[in-house]
Specification:
Layout lengths: L1 E10 L2 E11 L4 E5 L6 H8 L7 E6 L2 E2 L4 H7 E5 L11 H11 L4 H14 L15 H13 L5 E5 L7 H16 L3 E5 L3 H7 L2 E6 L2 E6 L1 H8 L4 H13 L2
Parallel strand pairs: 3-8, 3-9, 6-7, 7-8
Antiparallel strand pairs: 1-2, 1-4, 4-5, 9-10
Helix pairs in contact: 3-4, 3-5
Length: 243
Amino acid sequence: MIELDSVTKRFERLTAVERVSLQIQSGEVLGLLGENGAGKTTLMRMMATILTPTEGEIVINGFSVRHQQVEVRRQIGILFGGEIGLYNRLTARENIAYFGQLYGIAPDRLARRIEELSEMLEMQDYLDRRVGGFSRGMKQKVAIARVLVHDPQIVLLDEPTTGLDVGAASIFRALIRQMKAAGKTILFSSHHMGEIEKLCDRVAIMHCGRLCYEGTLPRLRAMYGFTDLDELFLQVLEKEGER
């Protein structure tokens, strides 16, 4: 479970996130929407303990991001879409294993987990090849496996399907559904409205650092009278801009 209470983040004179309150339950998939610069990544970085809130509190499965950072990090797996961060000279297996070792996973369990993730993400053909020659989509799959290697209860994904082709994106969606069925809490940001509609129980929309909508898509459609998600999104932003 993720709990945010009046979370604010300021960088000198810039307020990137302003008084955001939100709860995400175990077994729930929440889609985080907003234009570039809306504060989505900053919010997720605070959840991951990379940034410290200026004000407010974030609690991850009962642990405070301010005071219990080590415990929080054990609970979460996080992927930022533009930051794959793999070691090109290592194979896909070695990259995943390295991060698994950082989490203290026993060798036998780690080997089994790598095989499980390789099968789920269909990486068997290149698991033992160096990642330096991989396509963007192949690297993204390895990065997703690295994020999930310690079987985290909270999964934070910022633009996770960046670089994935249609087939790989379909595999990713199946993985999200599998994690949801296992009771994991999942937050992901995306500009692909089709993904949001297929995967999310609720959505949260940010604009200029503020949370301007939180709820289900049927409720959002009822509020604005549109069925097209792109049009709905633009309507929410237009209304928020008038305030």
